[in-house]
Amino acid sequence: MSLKHAVLGLLSESPASGYDLMKLFNASLTNVWPATQSQVYGELGKLTAAGLAEVSAHGPRGRKEYAITREGIAELQHWLAEVPPGGPHRDESLLRVFFLGVLTPLEARTFLLGRAEETARLHAELRRVDEETQWDDDMISVYGRLTLEYGLRMTAAQEEWARWAAEQIDSAKVREASDRVRSRHGLGTGDGPAATARDDGPDDAPAPTA
Amino acid sequence: MSLKHAVLGLLSESPASGYDLMKLFNASLTNVWPATQSQVYGELGKLTAAGLAEVSAHGPRGRKEYAITREGIAELQHWLAEVPPGGPHRDESLLRVFFLGVLTPLEARTFLLGRAEETARLHAELRRVDEETQWDDDMISVYGRLTLEYGLRMTAAQEEWARWAAEQIDSAKVREASDRVRSRHGLGTGDGPAATARDDGPDDAPAPTA
DNA sequence: ACCCGACGTGTCAAGAGTGGAATGTGGGAG
DNA sequence: CTCCCACATTCCACTCTTGACACGTCGGGT
């Protein structure tokens, strides 16, 4: 339901063609609300039909420049101020964590550390954007800055958590529990994907403490 | 693509009927990967057709108990260990922040503080769950605990951010920028949704510092 | 003069997710 | 014994999202 508002929001900054909007999506909204061509063009059509946007100019190669209408602004404001945000976050990474017990503790640990590095990478990327952008005082800049800061804080917290979680796994209890589950399914050497997962002997040896 | 793995993951813990799975989804995965009846039952069908799950028992009222198969386990492991996580987060709240400039600074500030409270509420709820749960050492407990900790950390960071962001808005520059954008669209008293949004005089008076 | 790369629009198929409704049965409370 | 609620499945119609494909055109560099 929110692609509509994303497009309206971008149009509220300045008129744009579908092509322009795609660039904007890829530039500023990639990590917030990704969208594809088909979606954008489709949405522009619906928006126009609904009277929330209109074609404000025709350009060179069939280019249609869309502008937000008064009704569009109203709808945007309505959405921002009155519609209760209720997006149930789906988090694939987290879903994986939940079932990490199906892997060996070693594999699980590796996964978490991988997550940590990935998050760190994203964090660095965001920091780079932050530093390279010259923040002036238009709407996109001001609130874009807030959005970016959010990203910075979240990625930082995520990395911290992932490293902490990896440590948690280095515990005898966890290893026992995992073994129990795995043996319940008759898992041992075979079957599994990465042959890294082997149970060559009791897990008494201390886990490699990186 | 991940509902499939969510179902497989739950089945890997113990066999269950579609009805059971729904309860599990609502109990433990609501904030990670929400799902509806139609989805779950549909997925069970596909899973069975694909040989990743099978009907392991028939119960009282047409009840079909599903169990994960060896292939299912393998697929789950494969997904966990080898498929690179790439979920592009969509965050509706964040999208709103990006366009908050369409509202008055006061409204924007209110929105952010509302977010802060909402997050705080969720945080408290998670803490409650954490304390009330008796964490033993099976897979769901151990990794569920990690997942929960993630939620606790994220909600904490989000609330902090929201309060910080609300403060940021109390700045002359932001107010000017917002006014500029709003006037560009000829906004004043009318039109807008919440009549709270009024520009009765210059915004020189300090914003109410909660 | 020509050609390639950027501009620019559009359609389609398929899968994911939402929300609601229809249908039926078993078992326990009263 | 009866009735109602929890159990349990299935179908439907819709929107959102993805990914690819198809098509046409302006403009500048060689």
From TrEMBL, chains A, B:
Stretch list, region Disordered: 175-210
Give all residue intervals belonging to the Transcription regulator PadR N-terminal domain: 7-77
InterPro entries named among the record's database cross-references: Tscrpt_reg_PadR_C, Tscrpt_reg_PadR_N, WH-like_DNA-bd_sf, WH_DNA-bd_sf
Bilayer-crossing residues are none
- Which ranges carry the Transcription regulator PadR C-terminal domain? 90-169
Among PANTHER family, the record links this protein to:
NEGATIVE TRANSCRIPTION REGULATOR PADR, TRANSCRIPTIONAL REGULATOR YQJI
Q: What is this protein called?
A: PadR family transcriptional regulator
> Source taxonomy lineage?
Bacteria, Bacillati, Actinomycetota, Actinomycetes, Kitasatosporales
